[in-house]
Amino acid sequence: MPKSAFALLAVIAAAALGGGVWLYLNQNTAADTATLTLYGDVDIREMQPAFNDSGHVTAILVQEGASVRPGELLATIDDTRYAAALAQAKAQLDNQRRILDRLTAGSRPQEIAQAKATMDGLEVTYRNDIANFQRFQKLAPGGAATVQQRDDAKALADAARQQFLAAKQAYILTVEGPREEDIAAARAAAKAAEAAVALAQREFDDTKLYAKADGIVEDRILEPGDMASPATPVFTIALPSPLWVRLYVPEDNLGRIRLGMPATIATDSYPGHVYRGWIGYMSPTAEFTPKTVETPELRTALVYQARVFVCDGREQLRLGMPATVHIDLTASPIAAPPGCGPADAAER
Fold first, then answer.
1. What does pTM read for this prediction?
2. Lowest mean pLDDT among 174-183, 237-246, 339-348
3. Cα separation of 36 and 55, whole Å?
4. Range of 158's domain?
């Protein structure tokens, strides 16, 4: 074959190879441009419930790994002192209510009749003493009665008059009944006693610890016989929702993603299973790449934390599980489906 033919074939082969390389590189570039792959760890929220009261733990009713539901009884402490305080508060409330009832009911008919009888009796005594004084007053000038007798009669009449007036006022007060100020004070005392009962009841109820949300018990911190207090958690409970992947976005990729962008999540624990999610949080501040993050980028580069909320991984994804996240950069932000979006995370 002539050398010119070999040269022509070489040029054609080189052109074909160059075109293939160009096509391959452009396809990979387009693919890389359309999807951003990041690496992170599964993250969840935890709570550490504690008693509002202090006392010795009498029972721990759930074990590690148990699933708990809202309102489920988890533990109890000794309630002896709180039960006694509640009984005392209820007795004081009953006493204050009886006092208020007595004041608002006013005087009984028998009390009014008694006050009137006392007043009438003292009025009779007063009139009789006045009559005696008047007789001695007439007899004294003629010598039939001494001045001392007249003065004694006057003193008796004056004393009887004061006793009669006092009985009269007592009768009027009995008819009118208690003062409004006394009733108001009794009513305020009854309300204070009601508040004391409510407080004692709450403290008694707080001797029982209930679950506040769905969760899984990770750790039993206290055991029966331990001293519990509001500052000492009893359990560590993992909350199944919200669930997200915490990842770190390199600074040069920060402008390519936006809140609400859809994403897919994959883990080594469940090969071939893809979870739905989207970007629900982006940190406003930069930080250095954490040493635990698996990323092909330089570990000394500045990154921004982001969270990709997961919709359907409750029963499979665990705290700290490594995950690979693929973000579709061509997709528009979407509305969060119920139960797995940033709004749900904020509510919790």
1. 0.65
2. 339-348
3. 54
4. 85-202
Please report whether residue 7 resides in a domain: no
Instruction: Please report how many Cα atoms fall inside a 13 Å half-sphere around the Cα of residue 330, on the Cβ side.
Output: 6
Is the pLDDT at 147 greater than 90? The verdict is no
Chosen domain end from 202, 226, 248: 202
SS3 of residue 245 by DSSP: strand
Q: State the DSSP string of 49-110.
A: ---SS-EEEEEE---TT-EE-TT-EEEEE--HHHHHHHHHHHHHHHHHHHHHHHHHH---HH
Q: How many separate domains does the chain show?
A: 3
Q: Which CATH number characterizes residue 67's domain?
A: 2.40.50.100
**Rounded Cα–Cα distance for residues 161 and 281 (Å):** 91
The CA dihedral of 168, 171, 173, 178, to the nearest 10 degrees, is 160
Domain C-terminal end among 153, 182, 202:
202
Report pLDDT digits (tens) over 115-131: 889 988 998 898 998 99
